[in-house]
Automatic annotation (TrEMBL):
UniProt entry keywords in alphabetical sequence: Hydrolase, Metal-binding, Zinc
Keyword Lyase: no
UniProt organism field: Rhodonellum psychrophilum GCM71 = DSM 17998
Names of the cofactor(s): Zn(2+)
Domain CMP/dCMP-type deaminase: 5-132
PANTHER family reported in the protein's UniProt record: DEOXYCYTIDYLATE DEAMINASE, DEOXYCYTIDYLATE DEAMINASE-RELATED
Protein name per Swiss-Prot or TrEMBL: CMP deaminase
Keyword Transferase on entry: no
Pfam families registered for this protein in UniProt: dCMP_cyt_deam_1
Family of this protein: Belongs to the cytidine and deoxycytidylate deaminase family.
């Protein structure tokens, strides 16, 4: 029996975490690692203690901000990073696996906290209809290694 490599393990976990999302538009999962150890996980959704969009606003989702994004939601990578920091876990030198490439705001956080590598599954620009992945462009410009995950993962959720 062949053993899966860690990129596959971590991205499969990110896909499974995305299934926990309560967002009605897009499910995103993230895994933050150092070497071969998981240091934090996250998925997109509103802050704990507020609401679950698919339960409280099942038909349209939560209110949108001026750019059309969820007004309360945290992105999966934000949740993973915040949870690590909240629990005094250093993220500097870590790798982030995420099912959707980081937006520009998340890229700024990733860079600022010293995360050195981002492996993503899908393009944020394609999802949002943007001309380029600004977040990936930012990370690359400032020396964060960026890689598109190249293997296929089976899942039924068409929101991932």
């Amino acid at each position: 029996m062949s053993k899966p490599n860690f990129d596959d393990i971590f991205m499969e976990l990110a896909v499974n975490l995305a299934k926990r999302s309560h967002c009605i538009k897009k499910h995103v999962g993230a895994v933050l690692t150092k070497e071969t150890r998981i240091i934090s996980i996250g998925y997109n959704g509103p802050p704990s203690g507020t609401h679950n969009c698919d339960e409280e606003f099942a038909e349209k989702g939560c209110a949108r901000d001026s750019k059309g994004s969820c007004s309360l939601a945290l992105h999966a990578e934000q949740n993973a990073i915040l949870y690590a920091v909240k629990n005094n876990t250093g993220v500097e030198g870590s790798t982030l696996y995420v099912t959707l490439a980081p937006c520009l705001a998340c890229a700024r956080i990733i860079f600022s906290l010293g995360i050195v590598k981002v492996i993503y599954m899908y393009s944020y620009a394609e999802y949002k209809g943007l001309p380029s992945d600004e977040g990936l462009d930012f990370l690359t410009k400032f020396g964060v290694e960026v890689a598109k995950y190249g293997n296929k993962i089976q899942f039924e959720d068409n929101l991932i």
